[in-house]
Amino acid sequence: MTETIKVGNLVPDFSLPSQLGKNISPQDYRGKKALVIYFYPKDETPGCTKQACSFRDHYEDFQNEGVEILGISSDSVSSHQNFASHHKLPFPILADVEGGVRKLFGVPKTMGLLPGRVTYVVDKNGVVRHIFSSQLNVTKHIQEALKAIKIQKT
Hints:
The chain is an alpha/beta fold. It is built from 5 helices and 9 strands, in the order βββααβαβαββββα. Strand 8 and strand 9 form a beta hairpin.
């Protein structure tokens, strides 16, 4: 049975390897930084590349708000290394090769086939404050996350 994370829940604890080979967990940021955790289907596909590059282009905005971005897909660490290097991504991309973290969050599949594209905004206490899901409107994930972060601060 897959859990579905809702606004107000604590972000589940997990640890996954990044493109730099270092394991990363939301616990690493607890009490220090808010997080944007975004799940995406696949490295180097048009929509996923556009989404990752849009997060990259707004990375400074997130950093200025005290937020770290974590991208997650089921691609391998080496695939993530190539993807991050190719597009100069300044944030960790985590390899959820078995799909366990995707299941832990309850990220749905689109049309029962494609891994879903869902973004979670987590405050620095580890509480999920906003969730946005859209397979096709890839750049709206960035707008939604920034808007949610600014609302939290007011």
